[in-house]
């Protein structure tokens, strides 16, 4: 029942955020996950997503909220973004051991992004949480 409730909440956040978003939407492809960034304010996005670990023993369904510091830091070049935020999700163990270690996870992240053209960019992010501390790199596509 908890998994169904989590999936329902995840879908609800996705649909509500899509209605109120005002700025650009982005799809982020990382080494171990993907998320769909949806703007909810000029400087704030939420990003529902799915991720795993390098051993493919865990699948995490979650959502990130990021605040973009571009205006505060005076970054006027649209090619650059600097952000930080919080994340929460549910980590499901899918490994070979008979463990039932699935659990709620939450943490913080900080990162930056650079676009080499109007559609594509790269990002680097460092995140830490209850169960994980992980650097991430990936590709961003503006939608």
List the topology elements.
Blueprint: H1 2-20, E1 26-30, E2 33-41, E3 44-52, E4 58-68, H2 70-73, E5 80-93, E6 103-115, E7 120-129, E8 133-142
Antiparallel strand pairs: 1-2, 1-8, 2-3, 3-4, 4-5, 5-6, 6-7, 7-8
Features:
single chain; 143 residues; alpha+beta; 8-stranded antiparallel beta barrel; 2 helices
What do you see in this structure?
The protein is of the alpha+beta class. The protein is built from two helices and eight strands. The chain has helices at residues 2-20, 70-73; strands at residues 26-30, 33-41, 44-52, 58-68, 80-93, 103-115, 120-129, 133-142. An eight-stranded antiparallel barrel has the order 1-2-3-4-5-6-7-8. It is elongated. The N and C termini lie far apart (34 Å). Mean pLDDT is 82; it is low at 16-22.
Q: Summarize this, please?
A:
The chain has 143 residues and is of the alpha+beta class. It is 16% helix and 57% strand. A hairpin with a 3-residue loop joins β7 and β8.
Strand-pairing-aware structural class: alpha+beta
Multimer state? single chain
* Helix-strand pattern: HEEEEHEEEE
Shape: elongated
Biggest β-sheet description: 8 strands, antiparallel, barrel
Question: What is the CA-CA span between the terminal residues?
Answer: 34 Å
Average predicted local confidence, pLDDT: 82
